[in-house]
Amino acid sequence: MSYRLRNILSSLAKYVALAVILVIVLFPIYWMVVTGFKNRLELTGTQPTWFPQIFTLDNYFKAFGGRAFPQYMVNSIIVVSTSTVLSLIAGSLAAYALARFPMSRGFRNNMSFWILSTRMVPPIVTIIPIYLLFVNLHWLNSYRALIIVYTGFALPFTTWMMRAFIQEVPVDLEEAALVDGDNRLTAFFRIVLPLTAPGMAATAVFSIVVLWNEFIFALILASTSKAITLPVGVSGLVSQYELLWGEMGAAGTVVILPILIFSLSVQRYLVRGLTVGAIK
Amino acid sequence: MDITYEHVTKQFGDVAALSDFSLHVADGEFMVMLGPSGCGKTTALRCLAGLERPSIGLIKIGQRVVNNLEPRDRDVSLVFQSYALYPHMSVRDNIMYPLRIRGMAKAERERQAQEVADRLEIGNLMDRRPRQLSGGQRQRVALARAIVRDPACFLMDEPLSNLDAKLRVHMRAELKHLQKSLGTTTLYVTHDQAEAMTMADRVAVLSNGVLLQVGTIDDIYRHPINVFVATFVGSPSMNLLPVSFEPASCQLVQAGLFAMDAAPLLPRFQIGAAPGDQYVLGVRPEDFAVSLESRPNSIPAEIYAIEPMGNEALVAVDAGDARLIARAAPTFQAPIGTHCWLTFEPSTVHLFESASQKRVEEK
């Protein structure tokens, strides 16, 4: 077999494999999107259809007109953005301490591991004590409960990511700033922060994606449209009496849309966030 | 302003990076701290800059004890080996940074930055970013940032070691000229003895956290205090030959190799006090003369290799177990393996006690 032919075949194999994976990953999303545009008859018919036979926006009108979805979306945006900002602030400062402050190697490693280990417990394990806590505080069904929990939920993650980014900033730069007249805090804001800005953006994206999709805490801690977030809102369409496939498809499409646009627009930083520390 | 270290010790855990280090740098002096990597010279510099705190001892800049001052309050500027230029700022902003932090008005700091940049011939690069500059240009920006503040003293941590060889030699002269024209006290750290020799007013040689010797380069070159200093300063290194003193015949002997009359050395050195009469004889390469005929009081050897250097030739020879280097005329030629004899003037040799490695006291 000639070298050229082998080359073509091997890249062909790669593209076929990629195509298969893409179909597996994207098909459910495709199905959700088309479901949102089908009418009830078509959805419950015995013959599944690839495309909506009669294109309809009814599901969208029902979900966003008759139900509280706009409110759910506002809730989601407020809770997720506030939690992300808080966890970024606390996470960067913690990461800075872990990356820079003098401490024994054992303490540094144990501390970092302890922070990460809080994510090893399945959220469902901690939900009951957290629930009781907020019952006693009378904070159930409020933004602040979700914001506190989400901040804590994202924090291990933001700390670890920011630590990697801060470690990439040469210590010399900070020391130069200290000698030039900065103190630690001003050196952090003038030197470290600008240099880790892309890393911060990547960390923010991860945090937003994770929190936007969070379901279990929101399900337990929020009960009315005052605090219910989008994922819980969508799940509410599965009720005891009916399965509103069409509305679910419509709502699901709207739920993933902002995050999709957002992720695509900061894709450059995302890739960078995934490979941080990989190459020097 | 002058700099004083008084019995400074710096511990990192159980390791003493610097022990009982005392040094005085006079106002306006160019002092070079010389030593191999890990000898504590950078630690000494960082203690002075305030990036490390000494465990014990005092550090003074002028009359002021600075031990407990933050780096920003010490009025020193530091040039890093990596240059540590702020990558997100232009050259102009880099140079102005110390002035900006100190709250100088914009017009004034721009004027001063431009002045310093022009002086260092980087005035046309002000709008570039550090990554768009060559190594030599970055070096100049780092220097400009250090100079622009007109500090009490300059601290430099191997600033030339990232430059290529040719540029390094060029910058040595330029740095020395700059330091003299500014008249600012400078403490310069390097492991390169050539830098120390060419630039320093005085050199401080360190090893394993201990200050071994301070003096002019001439002093250190001619009177090294021990074997370490003798071999570290000078290139190629001083040749060392273990010998024993035989009082009966008054000779320095290396069994099976050579014996030399010690009488000419007796007026210079206190010979005879070393344990077991064991000594190390040190001869600088330029003090050896290579002869292809047998001579009295000489070391028999075999030519191993000849390295022509243009203005001279370095002749490596095997003498017993030792490989010795001699400087010879550039025209010197002989086939490998030729028998030869190394001669030297007794007045040029150095003598060290074998056990303590210290220089034998001179009369």
Distance between the termini of chain A: 39 Å
Structure classification of chain A: mainly alpha
Shape of chain B: elongated
- Extended strand count of chain B: 20
Strand order in the largest sheet of chain B: 6-7-8-3-9-10
Instruction: Enumerate the spans of chain B where pLDDT stays under 50 for 5 or more consecutive residues.
Output: none
Rg of chain A from C-alpha positions? 24 Å
N-to-C order of helices and strands of chain A: HHHHHHHHHHHHH
Characterization of this structure:
The complex is a heterodimer of chains A (280) and B (363). With 280 residues, chain A is an all-alpha fold. Chain A has one domain (68-238, 248-276): MetI-like fold, CATH 1.10.3720.10. Chain A is 76% helix and 0% strand. Chain A contains 13 helices and no strands. In chain A, helix 1 crosses helix 12 (245-265) and helix 4 (69-100) packs antiparallel against helix 9 (184-212). The model of chain A has no long low-confidence stretch (mean pLDDT 87). By secondary structure, chain B is an alpha+beta fold. Chain B contains eight helices and 20 strands. Chain B has helices at 41-49, 91-101, 106-119, 135-147, 165-182, 193-199, 217-222, 227-232; strands spanning 3-12, 15-25, 30-34, 56-61, 64-65, 76-79, 153-157, 185-190, 202-207, 210-215, 239-246, 251-254, 258-261, 278-283, 289-291, 299-308, 313-319, 322-328, 339-343, 350-353. In chain B, the strands form four sheets. Chain B has a six-stranded mixed β-sheet, sandwiched between helices. Chain B has a five-stranded antiparallel β-sheet with strand order 13-12-11-14-20. In chain B, a hairpin with a 2-residue loop joins strand 1 and strand 2. At the A-B interface, helix 8 and helix 9 of A face strand 6 and helix 2 of B.
